[in-house]
Amino acid sequence: MKATILILCLVCFQIVLLVNYTSAMHDLFNEMDLNQDGKVSLEEFSHDMENSAFNRLDKDKDGFITPKEWSAVDLIEEKEKAQEVFQAIDKKANKRISYPDFKNYADKYSNLEEAFMILDKNKDGSLSPDEVTLRPLFRLITIHY
After folding, report:
1. Is residue 44 part of a domain?
2. How many other C-beta atoms can be found within 10 angstroms of the C-beta atom of residue 64?
3. What is the pLDDT confidence band of residue 15, given thresholds at 50, 70 and 90?
4. Distance CA 77, CA 47 (A)
5. C-alpha 55: how far from chain center
6. How many domains does the structure of the chain reveal?
7. In a domain, 133, yes or no
8. CA nearest neighbour of 112 among 138, 131, 93, 79
9. Against a cut of 0.85, is the pTM above it?
10. pLDDT averaged over the chain?
11. Is residue 143 situated within a structural domain?
12. CA end-to-end span of the chain, whole Å?
């Protein structure tokens, strides 16, 4: 009897997890699908990924990434190289990176198009809800420097 109850509890728990995961993936897709056409374009994907990465780096949510915030996240192992990349993004040399500066750099030096092509399993040039479920693997943008 106890074993049956335990098995039922485990099955119910797995169902709850699956429903929560499915709901989260649906919300994630709707968040990415800016024009609500039922598919995510490369532009929508890039916008979401860049925005997400910027928001993760901008810890104090003031709209800028400071050297302290940049160095707090170990994106680049070598400190000197990390400083070089920060300076390359900080076009105004005011020791803070704005979203437009970050986006311009990411557009030139990130692997977003490659990540998009990997997720686009049916190669139709857009992501369906099923293809977006793999997106958390690409939450951090790889920047080539």
Report:
1. yes
2. 19
3. very low
4. 26
5. 10
6. 1
7. yes
8. 138
9. no
10. 79
11. no
12. 61
Reference 129, options 144, 119, 140; nearest CA is 119
Q: How would you write the chain as a 3-class SS string?
A: CHHHHHHHHHHHHHHHHHHHHHHHHHHHHHHHCCCCCCCECHHHHHHHHHHHHHHHHCCCCCCEECHHHHHHCCCCCCHHHHHHHHHHHCCCCCCCEEHHHHHHHHHHHECHHHHHHHHCCCCCCCECHHHHCCHHHHCCCCECC
Domain interval for residue 133: 2-138
Side-chain-side CA neighbours of residue 52 (13 Å):
18
* 103 phi, psi to nearest 5 deg: -65, -45
CATH number of the CATH domain containing 8: 1.10.238.10
d(CA 72, CA 74) in angstroms, rounded, equals 6
Cβ atoms of 99 and 54 within 8 Å: the answer is yes
Is pLDDT above 60 for 4? no
Is residue 53 within 8 A of residue 142, CB to CB? The reply is no
